[in-house]
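User: Sequence for NnrU family protein below. Tokens please.
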Amino acid sequence: MILLIFGLVLFLGIHSVRIVADGRRSRFIAARGLNAWKGVYSLISIAGFVLICIGFGQARQQAVLLWSPPRWTHDVAALLTLLAFVLVTAAYVPGNGIKARVKDPMILGVKCWAAGHLLANGTLADVVLFGSFLAWVVLDFRAARQRRRAGAEPEVGSVKRGRSLMAVVVGVLVWMLFAFHLHQWLIGVAPFPGFHGIGH
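Assistant: Structure tokens for NnrU family protein:
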């Protein structure tokens, strides 16, 4: 659990700089350049992510069960995760209407992912991991909205025809690949036990 918590501190900490220390981030970039900031940001993010994966895996081996979620919560989690993949994809597809409408599809996507997994899992490690992401994303959304009101966030460009459909199709396909194959292979848990994917 210690590794999991330390990884969350690193990963969410570096992703919270714009929430709690946006001025320091700006001064760092002004003094050392954007590439230097991206380098530091990437190194800390990767280190935190690796520690989260290792720590979560260790915590699951000695799971502390807080409650037993009913079966229907897994169906809700699957739908929320599907929505999350579409939203995160929309964050990277330029000129799509989804991004123009919700403004922060990445943040909303992470919120759906965290909420779905928190609902469908009842161990202490799950609460620590997904609860931390859910709390962070609420704060990040608030900070992004404040920056937008202050004019510090760039406006979304014009919507181009077919880009929204592209985001939905790609998001659904990536979700299917991850849910039916990669999730069990990488995480060790099959979201759909009846499906025989990688690792069977």
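Residues 1-62 form one domain.
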